[in-house]
Specification:
By secondary structure, the chain is α+β, with helices and mostly antiparallel strands. Helices cover 35% and strands 28% of the residues. The chain has four helices and five strands, in the order E-H-H-E-E-H-H-E-E. The protein is globular.
Length: 109
């Protein structure tokens, strides 16, 4: 199992709609994430900076392949069409990233 942390900005005006969408997550999206080995997926919001922090545990064996599976889904494309315009990728993210990956520096059970 691999723990993953990611961060991205969120437009202040979009916070209520972003929360509403995630409070009523489409079952197709939840099923797709499970199919791709994503577990214990959480998103946290830090205001007033309006940063989203995502945490998930990946239980698969090929994250690149599973990310492609997710990206190819028509349901996920529709979900991202709603959520992506609300997000503000960090200027410091690596090339090719939308959400910026974070380094895990500590963990305990």
């Amino acid at each position: 199992m691999k723990r993953i942390g990611r961060v991205i900005g969120l437009n202040a005006d979009d916070i209520p709609e972003y929360k509403r969408l995630h409070a009523a997550l489409w079952p197709e999206i939840a099923a797709l994430l499970r199919q791709a080995g994503m577990r214990n997926y959480s998103i946290f919001l830090k205001e007033p900076e309006n940063l989203l922090f995502a945490y998930l545990e990946y239980e698969g064996t090929d994250i690149e392949k599973d990310n492609l599976l997710i990206a190819a889904s028509d349901d996920m494309k529709r979900w991202w069409a709603l959520t992506d315009p609300m997000q503000r990728p960090l200027d410091t993210r690596k090339q090719g990233e939308w959400w910026a990956d974070m380094e895990e520096v500590f963990h305990t059970d």
